[in-house]
Amino acid sequence: MPKETFYNLPEDKRNRIIEAAIDEFATHSFHTARVTAIAEQAGIAMGSFYQYFEDKKDLYKYLIELLVEKKLSYINSEMVKNKDKYDFFQLLREVYLSGFRFAIENPRLQPIGMMLANDKDLYREIYGEHEDRSADFFLQMLEYGKAQGAIDPEIDLKIVAKMLTGMLYSLTDFIIEDGKVNLDDMKIIDQMLYFIENGLRKK
Amino acid sequence: MPKETFYNLPEDKRNRIIEAAIDEFATHSFHTARVTAIAEQAGIAMGSFYQYFEDKKDLYKYLIELLVEKKLSYINSEMVKNKDKYDFFQLLREVYLSGFRFAIENPRLQPIGMMLANDKDLYREIYGEHEDRSADFFLQMLEYGKAQGAIDPEIDLKIVAKMLTGMLYSLTDFIIEDGKVNLDDMKIIDQMLYFIENGLRKK
Amino acid sequence: MPKETFYNLPEDKRNRIIEAAIDEFATHSFHTARVTAIAEQAGIAMGSFYQYFEDKKDLYKYLIELLVEKKLSYINSEMVKNKDKYDFFQLLREVYLSGFRFAIENPRLQPIGMMLANDKDLYREIYGEHEDRSADFFLQMLEYGKAQGAIDPEIDLKIVAKMLTGMLYSLTDFIIEDGKVNLDDMKIIDQMLYFIENGLRKK
Amino acid sequence: MPKETFYNLPEDKRNRIIEAAIDEFATHSFHTARVTAIAEQAGIAMGSFYQYFEDKKDLYKYLIELLVEKKLSYINSEMVKNKDKYDFFQLLREVYLSGFRFAIENPRLQPIGMMLANDKDLYREIYGEHEDRSADFFLQMLEYGKAQGAIDPEIDLKIVAKMLTGMLYSLTDFIIEDGKVNLDDMKIIDQMLYFIENGLRKK
DNA sequence: GATGAATGAGGTTTCATTCAT
DNA sequence: AATGAATGAAACCTCATTCAT
Fold first, then answer.
1. For residue D18, pLDDT beyond 70
2. Are A151 and A174 within one domain?
3. Do C49 and C128 belong to one domain?
């Protein structure tokens, strides 16, 4: 919740600040990130920062909100576009794929999320007791898949949701690290899907 | 690489320092961890700390080394004991299981590893360019399994190694969070294995 | 000495500013009082403030002047109305009484005066070397009383003037703190007068 | 409550810090007093300050405690020495006199007390709900005097206690301002006593 | 004249590390 | 070798005042 003043800023400057904040939080944890660095890089005076935001945490929360929103809209738009065309596993593929695409197009955002996930106190301050939102998301998908009869009913969905989350993160990391992955040949996705599908599909 | 003096310390005091360090680094990132807190909790003088270690990072590296060693020996001892009795999937089960057991018995060590994994700079400083040691470990296992003919040859092992790593971390986290998981009923493991095995096994 | 612009303001706005300033200076010392708070509460823009006043001190001086004026006129009007009807002690009673009444009716002004009295530097900046204007006032009264023959000639008027000042302040504070004092029963005044009169009256 | 470290300091340095603090708080309110100035004047590093005290308020509270203690012991020693020799008014004289002496010998302490008295929030933080400790002190004395039959029973002691407090402060201020008052000629005290005694004594 | 964003000096506090005993 | 005080470089944040529209 930035202050009014922030929203009144010319878009250009507002963006500079957001970009600077992303840069800083992508390379530093919340605690080691320096307000000074953000202000400097954004080309504003220290004092100005505090006219836009209550404090460092205020900016951080705002940023997280922004990123989540961006990512969700990104993923959903893909899903919504194709919802009817796919069965559960194709849907899952889309989710992973859009996740990867998002990460590739916004490589600085990945570490921010990872760092937040690792600062339990901060995470709780932002999301309350919601343990893990990503797993929740997968859990819903899985329940949908189960209802469709696509998933082996023997399988504990809660555990699989956790596993899918972990895999998504690891692979995303892998893909970004690698840098030069070309998602279009889809091999990595297919490999992964092949693995998951065999693991889940009802026989 | 602590200084000579550290190794010359009576075991009792050395342990107190290590325990204090674990406590601090388990609840704080490298940067927010305070040397003062460690010294205090260990019951040594601030000045003494710098007679045992070069600086904070020195202690940290040493600690990481220690933990890795401890974990590896933990896992390996289990494996070695049973190596001949199991096929690849049973081996994998043992690896995961011992990973969980280790985490449950040493719950403070998990967050330390997670935090390190998220501080790329620090990670690199410790492991050089070695991207991900856990994935390396799984990769070796997978190659062994492939050689045994247990694994579907279609599958890209490098990717699966990453996935296995991610799953292991996520599930470990899940198990620790939950707190009251009783590994003895093995259900969670079986669920997971069921999933993985279907995903990998040669048909 | 506010700027021209201030005096040109519509009375309503001018009053809002004065009221806001009183509120702020009644609850904060000169240094801790915030211009921002005053502007905000008065409903004017920060920039406007500096078009009305040179700076914070400018407003403050103006305010003090205003308050002194208000208080003096308050007291004098009572006195003047009744001057001929009373002897010295009755006059003194009126002074104290009107002092109390003023404080009760304007409870926010009391702390402002107290705080100023305690900031010697500020006080001097406003009143120059005039040590203590309240004592001066009492001194004049006392001299008048002495001339009338009402006061014991043995008594050093300068000292008594100081004492009367101190008592007035303390009692005013006492009365305001108490909150629910009903001046109409006059008991507190009579008690005080009884004490003072015995102390001063010529025998 | 300073930290251990402060008490372990060589007396010389400890005194330098106390002196510097007195200097700063005698000329600035709690809020405008600067830790920097104290450290500088005491000739210690900024960081050292925070090894001796929790924060600025910690030092301030300690200082107040110190001053109160000093003043009380000062007054009491005088009283105790002479308790049996004097009747109520002589005792009162001693109290005032020792109050003046204390102020003259410790002229920097007076403004500190005055400023505290004017910062209601701070005062309450230090003394809880105790409205006014000085008035309490006088009230006890007056009750003692009344019991002895020295004081006119018509008089409301609570009010007089307040008045005595106010007078004491005003006169102390007067005396210090004046600078060159020679208490030994006692005239000022006698004047004041003459006034008070007439006001209170039973007739 | 009015507005409110921009500025930056200045203050408190933290903590890794050094130093003196 | 052990101690623990000393140091000072940051970091965050506040607010009076100026500036640009």
1. yes
2. yes
3. no
pLDDT in tens, D109-139: 988 998 898 888 899 889 887 778 889 989 9
Choice between C15 and A203, residue whose per-residue pLDDT is larger? C15
For residue C18, what is the domain's CATH number?
Answer: 1.10.10.60
Best of D162, D175, D189, D202 to mutate (most C CBs within 10 Å, chain C)? D162
Q: How far apart are CA C191 and CA A174, in angstroms?
A: 88
pLDDT digits 0-9 by tens, B26-37: 999 999 999 999
**The two three-digit tokens of residue B113, written as one number:** 């590893």
Same domain, B99 and B179: yes
pLDDT tens-digit map of D167-186: 898 888 888 876 656 666 66
Question: Alpha-carbon distance B180 to B117, whole Å?
Answer: 26
- Which residue has 């856990």 as its token pair? B134
Residues B123 and B181 in one domain: yes
Please indicate, yes or no, whether residues B27 and B121 belong to a single structural domain of this protein. no
pTM of the model: 0.88
Domain that holds residue C122: 73-198
pLDDT of residue C96: 86
Residue A66 in domain: no
Residue owning tokens 């929203």 = A7
Quick one: tokens of B20?
């204090």
In a domain, D166, yes or no: yes
Domain count, chain B: 2
Same domain flag for A53 and A84: no
A82/A98 Cα distance (integer angstroms) = 12
Checking if the pLDDT of A8 tops 70, the result is yes
Do chains C and B meet with 3 or more Cβ pairs nearer than 8 Å?
no
CA distance D104 to D181: 9
* D-interface mutation test, from C193, C195, C200, most D Cβ less than 10 A away: C195
